[in-house]
Design goal:
By secondary structure, the protein is α/β, with parallel strands linked by helices. About 45% of the residues are buried.
Length: about 700
């Protein structure tokens, strides 16, 4: 049997289990061996009940003598008790609180492995375990040798449907014994230099660690075997990105010239003197654009740092060289916002702009597509509608992608293919922690806008509990009386957009009829027709509406310098980065602005999130904390993020290994030990990683 053998042919799997395993990304024997335990338990202290001592951690194999849901305050606690016996003449009691479900799991006569701390029950006089870990050793599954599950350091896997941690243990044990050879693709010189174990040793130790392995290191994923496998995963990802960077630099692109006329046009367009950071970043971009290969640059900056203005300057260079520019935004509201902002900026220059979104009518769509194909539309702004196959550009030279991580990898690729190797500028308003920038944007050069336009004051952030909302309303009224404007935002939770819209509509009616009866108030949400959204946004921007009640559609895109108050209802339901984005909608003028976070009762994690926001205006610091609190997948909403699906590596926990792997990968690609070694690495990447890491292939 080889690593490439389809998983259904492994003994104990078969077609039905293979289907379940595929939901976890396990298609081959190699995939199974790469499915890492998420923690380990030391069950090596295996004892009969008669030799147990209070205070020790121990493993017992015993039969269920009796099991019942305790009558003691049953409704409140749902306490489940089971009595175990092992033939040594004594019994052991186990208790689980809030565990009524166990009455359908533990049955009299089953053989169970129990693992936990032994205590003495002074009231009843006897040994007991509270909330022990347990595994059923008898039942429909032939779990194989009981010594896999007890009497050793035991790996604990995340179950897949009916495939329990015990079944995973047995299958990995079977696979390790059945595989004749485990090739080691990691370059020998890299492995030797870092002192890493070979792959077979690493995989064996990952699943079945030696008895003397340090349990703390195992659960911190810092044993030599785990470090080797984490490093390997990062190394191949970074090799793929390094090869992609190299290949992009070899492609023939457009060598744009920054002519005197382009410089003059940029000066005519600018509404104010650019910041030092904006000047530096434009110089980096102009240098890239002048090169004969395609630009691939990430423009990062905190909210309000002026990224759109830099993108507009970049667009001027492309248009003045006779090329078209396309701007891709993730939502219709943001696309419309870019369209109006750029239309005003470009008005003195006489450029032709079009806006193409999903809600554009069929006749108008056909007219716009004709203008784009003929080259009459110099700047095309839109949503996913721009990606449709029948949208053809006459001469696309620059592609600007806003808020990139909201787009799937293949969507980005389709967009870039609209031109023959156009220059690409990616903007992201969510500051990206360094580890994620190295993976998600590892193939891009990075420009950083780290300076806010002059005259802006940091936003003051306050936390208020919902029982004090009247104080918030009176503060809002004071600000409006001074000629300012305010936002009140409601969260869209999961898929419940309709619920959020209902809440926003109810609050809109309450505010306009009861709280502020004399004030003009607007309502904005994702399901309003495009024309109505536009009208509400325009009226708010012109100051006709004093308060805008909204769902999170304003998270990016609405720009009203006179708005000084942002009230976020149910703030505990938002992620940190999203709260920071919403806060960035105020503080865009010279007046002092405020962000008020209204919450219910907070759990410790939500409390930490709110405290972080009250204490800091630094988007990068906030992004790092958000990543730590929520993990990479949730930080981005993984499926559409282009974020690689790691098997054992964790971007938060293993950041230092990622940095090391990136350095080693860059060195290997630029100075391979032999040409053959590099060719082998490319072949390995192509065969093994394209399926899992499409990111590596997007160029």
């Amino acid at each position: 049997m080889t690593l490439d053998t389809p998983i259904k042919y492994l003994k104990g799997v078969g077609p039905a289990r293979a289907e379940i395993l595929e939901t976890k990304g396990i298609h081959t024997v190699e995939d199974l061996l790469g499915y890492a335990p998420f923690r380990y338990e030391d069950r090596s202290n295996l004892k009969p009940i008669s030799r147990l001592a209070p205070g020790e951690m121990a493993t017992v194999i015993a039969g269920v003598k009796s099991a019942r849901l305790s009558a003691f305050r049953r409704r409140e606690l749902g306490m489940f008790e089971a009595e175990f016996t092992d033939g040594s003449g004594m019994t052991l009691l186990a208790r689980w609180f809030h565990a009524a479900y166990l009455k359908d799991v533990l049955q009299t006569g089953q053989r169970i492995a129990l693992y936990g701390k032994v205590d003495w029950d002074a009231r009843q006089g006897g040994l007991f375990m509270l909330h022990p870990e347990f595994e059923i050793l008898s039942g429909s599954d032939e779990e194989g040798d009981a010594s896999l599950h007890v009497g050793r350091i035991v790996p604990i896997y995340e179950a897949a449907g009916k495939i329990t941690t015990r079944v995973f243990r047995r299958l990995t044990h079977t696979a390790l014994a059945a595989v004749s050879a485990v090739p080691d693709p990691l370059p020998e010189n890299v492995r030797r230099r870092l002192g890493l174990p070979d792959r077979r040793t690493a995989l064996s130790s990952l699943h079945f660690p030696a008895p003397d392995t340090d349990l703390r290191l195992l659960n911190e994923f810092r044993t030599p075997a785990q470090v080797r496998l984490i490093f390997e995963e990062f190394f191949w990802l970074e090799c793929g990105l390094a090869l992609k960077r190299r290949d992009l630099r070899r492609q023939t692109g457009i060598a744009f010239s920054l002519s005197d006329r382009a410089r003059e046009q940029i000066k005519r367009m600018l509404p104010f003197r650019p910041t030092t950071a904006q000047k530096r970043v434009l110089a980096e971009i102009a240098k890239d654009m002048a090169a004969p290969h395609p630009m691939n640059r990430l423009l990062q900056g905190d909210v309000g740092s002026g990224k759109t203005l830099v993108a507009a300057e970049t667009a001027v260079i492309a248009v003045e060289n006779g090329y078209q520019v396309a701007v891709l935004a993730p939502t219709e509201i943001l696309a419309a916002q870019h369209y109006y902002y750029l239309r005003n900026l470009f008005a003195p220059l006489g450029y032709s702009l079009v806006l193409l979104t999903g809600s554009t009518g069929a006749r108008e769509k056909a007219r716009l597509k004709k203008l784009i194909a003929e080259g009459a539309a110099q700047v095309v702004i839109g949503t996913h509608a721009v990606l449709e196959p029948d949208v053809e550009f006459h001469k696309l030279g620059l592609a600007i992608v806003d808020e990139q991580h909201r787009f799937g990898v293949m969507q980005r690729l389709r967009f870039i293919r609209k031109g023959i190797h156009p220059d690409v500028l990616v903007m992201t308003a969510t500051p990206i922690p360094r580890t994620l920038a190295l993976t998600l944007y590892g193939d891009l050069d990075v420009s950083l806008l780290d300076e806010l336009p002059p005259g802006r004051k940091p936003v003051i952030t306050k936390h208020v509990t919902e029982d004090r909302i009247e104080l918030v309303y009176s503060f809002l009224k004071q600000q409006v009386d001074r000629g300012r404007q305010a936002y009140i935002v409601y969260p869209v939770i999961d898929e419940s957009e309709a619920t959020a819209i209902k809440a926003a509509r109810r609050m809109y009616e309450h505010l306009s009829q009861v709280v502020f009866p004399g004030l003009p108030i607007g309502l904005l949400h994702g399901r309003l027709p495009a024309a109505e959204k536009e009208s509400v946004m325009d009226r708010f921007k012109r100051g006709e509406l004093k308060i805008l009640v909204s769902t999170t559609v304003i998270e990016v895109g609405v720009d009203a310098p006179n708005a000084t108050v942002m009230v976020i209802e149910q703030a505990e339901r938002f992620g940190l980065a999203q709260l920071h984005q919403l806060r960035g909608r105020v503080g865009r003028g010279a007046e002092q602005s405020y962000c008020i976070l209204v919450t219910g009762k907070l759990n410790p994690v939500a409390e930490e999130r709110i405290r972080a926001l009250v204490g800091s205006n630094d988007g990068f610091q906030i992004a790092e904390m958000d990543l730590r609190l929520r993990g990479p997948g949730e930080f981005f909403g993984t499926r559409q993020s282009g974020l690689p699906a790691m098997r054992i590596a964790n971007l938060v926990r293993d950041a230092e290994l990622l940095v090391k792997a990136r350095a080693e990968a860059s060195r290997f690609v630029s100075e391979p030990p032999t040409r053959e070694a590099l060719e082998q690495a490319v072949a390995y990447l192509r065969n093994n990683w394209q399926r899992r890491y499409g990111l590596v292939e997007v160029a």
